[in-house]
Amino acid sequence: MHIHFEGLRRCGVVLAVVALAACNVGDPGEDEIRLEEAEQELSCTVTRQCPGAAPVSCGATNGLCLSGDSNGGWVFCGQGYTYCAAPCICGGERYVATRGVNHPLRCHAAMETAREQAYAEASAACPAGYCNVVEQELRCEQTPYGDHHALFQLTYSCKDPVTCQ
Question: What is the pTM of this model?
Fold first, then answer.
C-alpha cells in the first residue's frame, strides 16, 4: 500500500505541474501585445476648427479627448486646455512711418530702400501684423551733392489683439 500511495503522490505532483504550466501557456510577450492593443484602443486625438485662426488639436493615451465652443473654442486631452487663438481684426488707430533715404546713383533705388525701412518699422510696431496699408512715394530729387534723396510714407493700422493669428 505504501508503494501505491507513493505512485499516486508522484502522479499528483506531475499533474499539478502540468496544470500550473497550462495556466501560463502562450508567448511570454503576449501580455505585452494585449496591453499595447488596449492602449491603442484608448488613444484619441481631437481637433477644433477655430474661427479666423489656425485649428488646435491634442492627443491622449487615456481616452480622454474633449472639445468645446466656450471662450472661442478649446480642446482638452488630460494635460490641460488648449484654446483657439483670437481671430485678428484690423485696429482703428492709424500709424505713419516716413523714411528718407539717399542713394548715390538712382531715385528708384533710394525709394525702394525707404519703402523697405518703412515696412520694417510697421512690422516692429505690430507683432500680429499690419493692415489697411497706404503707400505714398512723396518725392525723389537730386541733392546738391549729386546723390538722390527719396521720401516714402507708409500709413497703416495694427492687427488686434496682439496674440491673434
Answer: 0.56
